[in-house]
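Fill in residues.
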């Protein structure tokens, strides 16, 4: 039985983890933390039937030895001290924040505007995208969970980057549910502001998550230095992300060849290493050929396998055909 703790269990990611670990046959939850609700049972904060007592992070430090692994579901900037403290106590750390996703303190400062106070730990963290780092993750003790937008984008585009088919420019249009911003009350995320509205923000080359796209996709593309234009939007939905990526097909690469990323892998298929047969049913990337009818996110919701994630992600790759052919709709 794996003994786990969750720092920041009252937030949106934390409460999802509580539910996943509570029903996990090989995991036992030993403590969970909160700032504002420490001392209360979890059932007083969320509509769940479990009375796990909420403790402070400082109490959790003192009880570090009770667990094998800690999940940090804290705002970025707050995970650094926690990760350092638990790692020093020999506890495996899975950090959901952005604090250990980038490879250098310079990159962290540039994208997050903060000084990284534990840069010596950055090389020890493995970027937790299974499809990219599966083998490293098997033995990793420190894991940086990827961001939400980059997960949709990187999973969709990684096979193309690996095959050298990404080109030098990709346009990404993403729409996110409101829970992606966390549980803290802020005006743009209030019901009256977000409901029946759709808001673009951080358009172009501004959003912090571009750093993770560059990390994964430029790292994967042979000689690749792709430029990403990223337009995120706030969608009036509680959860989920829809990402549509526009890629210019290189000469000689046809739509059927692109579509191999959603086909059964074969030795001849250069994309086969990304989507393994065991995970085929979980692969919800759609490659849309020219003139295809629309793909419905609701349809994707319906085929979402239970128990993997209660969130949904849809990735669509739209191909911009080579010059001689008409563009995709
Ligand atoms: N939401 C998503 O869809 C999503 C997806 C991927 C990654 N992430 C990342 O995962 C992390 C958690 O996100 P979230 O949406 O779950 O956040 P959230 O809903 O705002 O919850 C934050 C949690 O951290 C606790 N907390 C806040 N400040 C703290 C501090 N100074 N010290 C200790 N604990 C503190 C809060 O406790 P109390 O409020 O109970 O006091 C709460 O439990 C973030 O870094 C986020 O970027 C989020």
């Amino acid at each position: 039985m794996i003994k786990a703790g969750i720092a920041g269990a009252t937030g949106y990611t934390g409460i999802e983890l509580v539910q996943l670990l509570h029903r996990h046959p090989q995991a036992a939850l030993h403590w969970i933390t909160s700032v504002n609700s420490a001392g209360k049972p979890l059932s007083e904060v969320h509509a769940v039937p479990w009375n796990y007592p909420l403790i402070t992070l400082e109490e959790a430090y003192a009880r570090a030895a009770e667990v094998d692994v800690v999940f940090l579901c804290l705002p970025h900037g707050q995970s650094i001290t926690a990760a350092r403290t638990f790692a020093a106590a020999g506890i495996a750390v899975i950090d959901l924040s952005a604090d250990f996703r980038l490879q250098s303190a310079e990159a962290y400062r540039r994208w997050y505007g903060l000084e990284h106070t534990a840069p010596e730990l950055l090389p020890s963290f493995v970027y937790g995208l299974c499809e990219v780092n599966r083998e490293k993750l098997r033995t990793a003790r420190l894991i940086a969970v990827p961001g939400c937008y980059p997960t949709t984008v990187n999973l969709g585009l990684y096979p193309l980057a690996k095959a050298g088919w990404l080109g030098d420019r990709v346009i990404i249009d993403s729409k996110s549910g409101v829970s992606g911003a966390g549980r803290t009350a802020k005006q743009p995320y209030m019901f009256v502001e977000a409901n029946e509205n759709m808001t673009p923000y951080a358009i172009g080359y501004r959003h912090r998550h571009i750093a993770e796209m560059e990390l994964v996709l430029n790292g994967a593309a042979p000689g690749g230095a792709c430029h990403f234009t990223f337009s995120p939007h706030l969608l009036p939905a509680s959860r989920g992300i829809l990402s549509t990526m526009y890629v210019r097909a290189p000469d000689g690469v046809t739509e059927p060849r692109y579509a191999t990323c959603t086909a059964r892998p074969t030795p001849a298929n250069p994309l086969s290493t990304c989507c393994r047969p065991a995970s085929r049913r979980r692969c919800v990337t759609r490659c849309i050929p020219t003139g295809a009818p629309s793909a419905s996110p609701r349809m994707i919701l319906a085929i979402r396998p239970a128990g993997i994630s209660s969130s949904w992600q849809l990735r669509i790759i739209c191909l911009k055909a080579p010059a001689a052919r008409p563009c995709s709709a």
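The pocket of NAP is lined by residues 8-14, 34-37, 57, 73-76, 78, 96-98, 147-148, 179-180, 182-184 (CB under 6 Å).
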